[in-house]
Amino acid sequence: MSQEANANTASNVSQMRPRQFGKYLLLEKIGSGGMAEIFKAVVRGAEDFQKVVVIKRILLGYSRDPSFVKMFVDEARITAPLQHANIVSIYEFDQVEGQYYLAMELVHGRDLQRVMARANKVGRTLTPELAVHIVSEVCKALWYAYNARDPYGNPLQIIHRDVSPSNVLVSFDGEVKVTDFGVAKAATSSGDQGGGVLKGKLGYMSPEQVMGRDVDHRSDIFSLGVILFETLTLKRMFLGRTDLQTLINVRDADVEKRLARHPEIEAGLADILRKVLAKDRERRYRNAQDFLGDLQDWLYARNHRVGSSQLAGFIRDLFPEESEQELLPLEVEEVTEGTRQALLDQANESTPVSGASEPTPMPPRMATPAPLRPLTPPPAHLLTPPSALPPVVPTTRRPSQPVALVSHVVPPPAPAAEAPDLSFEDSGLRLTEPNTKTSRVAPQTANFRIRDAEGNIFGPVSFDNVLSLLKSRSITEDETCSMNDGEWMRVGDVAAFRGHMRDVGVETSRRVLLFEGGLERRNMVRLVTQIARVQRLSGLLTLKQGSNQKEIYFRDGRPRFIYSNLKNELLGEFLVRRRLTTRESVTTAIQQSRNVTGRLGDALVSQGVVGAHELAEALQVQFRERFLDIFRWDTGWYGFFENVSSPKAAVTLDLDPMEALAEAIRAQYDLPLLRAFLNESATRRLARTDSARVSLPDLKLLPREMRVVNLLDQNPSMGQLMKVLPPGPESELLVYRVVFLLTETGAWMFRGATSTSPRR
Q: 582 — phi, psi (to 5°)?
């Protein structure tokens, strides 16, 4: 029951009159999504008995879809046996005239995401003790769920797979409850739940989860570690400027980098975070109980007692008015038997699946699940949250991903939604909205094709892509373009380009050129070493060779983003070349996604053509290949502009520059080229450089390359070294590559003539 229903749940609250749904009186609609809608409701019994609950009702159109019904049934079956103080209870699963629903506990409080947002807004912080207490309570829930058994005694071994702040409810009485097992998986679940498909919220997934690998209970523990970090700091841990950047941040799980930004985290808690957030799950806590033990030990060592009363005081201080709201309206309008059917029909009205205008009969092969009998009544505390902050959600849903919904919260008037957390961005061509040749459309939302001076046509590309090409002078204002497959026109005649180019010109003129020179393959290794290791620069390295251009953005000496105008390095071409998709699929993705402002990778993921983890890996490989390609450029110009940041929308990656240099020499420098560079020095003595900025471990040499380095200490020239290695071009190439890498990076240097005899 997460709050992933809408980017702005408050805007979907329905101001409705009470209406009957089976034995429940629906009081108000408190959430909705693509698959279900959520109501606060009351059920009545004898002697004025009444109970306030939440009804999560599958939309009528989806009630006839076996796959959606199965998801709903799985959620009910997994959650129903769970009876624990830290887990929201399911009371009933049934159907009313074919429309399935869940009846569940109503919690009077706020989800943790809303708590952190309010604390941030009013300048409050959660004490470390309160943060540890909240996470400890969630540990209890996860440990119980994993060890719970079904009514037949079979172990459930439930993995939640969506542990996030919006699924942790904190009541105004200081209780902590976990909700929304909609994407959970149990050992008793029927069938696969979509291996390789992302489940849950991206910023709180584990590295193995975002990579599409099998997950176990340690994935939930990692997610809970992210929550601990965020409750301590009130800062998002892995959130990037784009969702793909978030995925990459999670995959890399650089905990030390995050801890370095928050020295206020006490050393003992920092050690706990290091363990719970270990990238390798074998190094994490074995289970939630072990994690809980360390948290309790930390509290005990501080001699500080914290419990529900302290938490209740903090939450009530944050939400003073909401905490005093009534559970129910003072009076609820009665529904007479004469109007019951009319109200029931009204309640059952919902938007059908696209293309379905009338109800269709239930598929004959779909077995109707037996309704669950009402479960044990909940604890005396029935908690009712009157509002909640909308969760971090995508602006659009992907059909391959399950939809989880708000089921326990009455939202306040339209709070500001946080940044999207689950729609994938990449560095490829941007997709734009559909338009016809005759449509009047803003160029910023159009697709463009470009025709160069030789008559070659490429595209479709977005408005931003054309701007990038103009900025790099890869195309000129005199070349022609076609907007939405319309008439060909001069690029410079598109008014929107002229305005943007003026801004680009002003921005470019403000750049400070630190140094420049002519491109030579011999000097490329030395150039990158100077930027990456000697000076550790931040800024932009621009390389031009004819009409080809690359821009490499460095941060503290490490490449973080590369722009390239080479057509074979566009994302679609790269994915086709890697056989991750076909050219037809790329074209189809562009055509079918023109009604969504996004990017090519986003469309391919949403249509199931490429997995999200496959896309992330492909972009990292593409990033590396773009960097290695510059070592083939033997003519042209380079210039380094200091303190130029990566474009705001860029998906920043990371590359070890020294390791990449070694790889570049292996891939791009053959024996004839190296002979031309080094033959004159074949007899000169080689020695390690004192106080070198580059060390051998930095270069991550292969074992056979390290053997050459070790032999150099005893045979200090290339000529002498050749005599102790097996003769042949392979040995010669190996020696030349190692010596070239060592001398160009400054790890070793030539020192005059060779020694008279080799040392043994």
A: -110, 160
